[in-house]
Amino acid sequence: MPISDEALRKETNRFIAVKGEARVGQALAAFKALEAQPWWHLVVQKLDGSWAVARFRDLAALPDFAGAPDTQVNDLENLTAASAVERDTIETRDAQAQARKSPSRVLVVTANGTPVGILVEGVRRSAGGPTLAAPDVNRLGGKYINLKDYGTILLGSSKK
Length: 160
Known about the structure:
This protein has about 160 residues and is of the alpha/beta class.
């Protein structure tokens, strides 16, 4: 039995997934367009095919420099490695246990290699830590912030 829809739809499992070559500005444009919250996870398929995650609020800690919006998300230092599994190969409880063992405590759930959800275990959604206010989103998003066509950088999200 595959990972359940119910588990993937839990509010704590909200995410936006992008390819590693996506720019920070593009990821933040998706954040803005999808009306995401700072506690949502940015899921990155790194250039080597592995997966990594960060909370969007962690992007507020990026240095304020002119090229920040053009930085590839693959190069962000605050990404944490995440495990991944095909949805149909594991049951929900086993997947949740695997998420708890992941360095990020997040398991990326895929279908045919494309992210369809995440499981976040043992991590609170709290508003603690850095905030990502609208001015931060606009500053870090730069010229991309009002982007409507993400091309092929957006792999998926929990809000369609």
